[in-house]
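User: quick one, fold this
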Amino acid sequence: MRPYTELDASALREEVAAGHRSAVQTVEECFARIDALDAQLGVFLSTERALARSRAAQIDAQLARGEPAGPLCGVPVALKANMCLEGFEANCGSRMLAGWRAPYSATFAQRLLDAGAIPVGMTNMDEFAMGSSSENSAFHVSRNPWSREHTPGGSSSGSAVAVAAGLVPLAFGSDTGGSVRQPAALCGIHGFKPSWGRVSRYGLIAFGSSLDQVSPFARSTRDLELAMGVISGRDERDATCMDENALQPIVPDDERSLAGVSIGVPREYLPDSDTGEVAQCVRAALESLRALGAELREISLPHTAYAIPTYYVIATAEASSNLARYDGVRYGLRVEGSGSLQSMFAATRGAGFGAEVKRRILLGTYVLSEGYHDEWYGRALKVRTLVARDFEQAFEEVDLVAGPTSPTTAFRLGERAADPVAMYQADVLTVPASLAGLPAISTPCGFGAGTPRLPIGLQLVGPARSDARVLRVARAFEAATAHSKERPPLALEPAR
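Assistant:
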């Protein structure tokens, strides 16, 4: 029996299904890893050990009775703390919802349960998914397992670290403007944002409703395909969900061949003048794709420069609307004011929300206010259309678009905390695909030249609904390179 930390979700499931290990034993190994490393890394906001152990025992009993094993049978998974799973605390990394336990399960979470997965806890995140470093969590920061002085990225910080450090083989985050792809790149793992509407958002606590997407982290692309096959598909409780069956992966005759695949490299993502370590590493990755048979073409996405300001108008407007429900009346924190209902609202929101959330609510309220709606929000929607058209025109010539996921390797914790604009720029390469609703993956492609050794991610973006194509190309790249096999030294330490 191979050690828990050496197995991806696919291999772990096969061992449990074959009886080589029990689900109960697997969960105990998972909690041993959490006990050994979580204090150093700040991954979890809560764990639900009694529920996980009970579920593991139930799965073992079902297998003993000869019942079929689900596609995620016995696999421990972690969920970001903005996801509803009945009985689990979903606090969104905020004091506003501290202690709030979900009374129902999100559609995707129920599908995980139905597939045999074992949720073990809720992971740390930037408050209400607003941030790129974990430093906006109301509870603690998460730390990059490659260097604990550096950020793991955000906002799905804890889920990324949980996979990178070997605490769980599969974890889930939400990607609004890059909140899965950016931390995947900085932590050296795979993170996939599906096409908007591929996965139901029912039970995902909203930040930006036209942007949010449930997204998986994994150490292998086959695990991403496995997860997407489970959580994808139509849901009557989400009217924006695609009306089609669950994602079916493309399995070519030769998994490593990319013959006939054309890949566009936007000059806005990888200009010739950029000779930095990220650019050099990504160029080497692109040459690996060429060696597999792919054709590389230089393209242009001319409205890329407007993506960040457009995103921060649209996302903050939607956040202002979505977060209006936290008023101290129905659930969550309540702080009594000076006696009036209005003072109670103000006191509750003042105490419950952190600085970044307040900043975005104020920005969103402003751009939606009378006299400014058309000037700001209306104009941003028009530019969003232009960004989407850039991609549509590019995909008339190429099958995928490729470039860096993040413009830099992981930055030091505290380095950008006082400069919100610098922090927003961390998502400059991930936001365009989010605005256009396109599937995109960050896959490991190497390391920076400095010390400590920090990962770099290659981003692949496809046309809407081409999720399987994006995953297929990433799988070919993974099979032809050794980047995905690299593990942070901390993750190789035995459980104590």
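User: anything notable?
Assistant: The mean pLDDT is 95.
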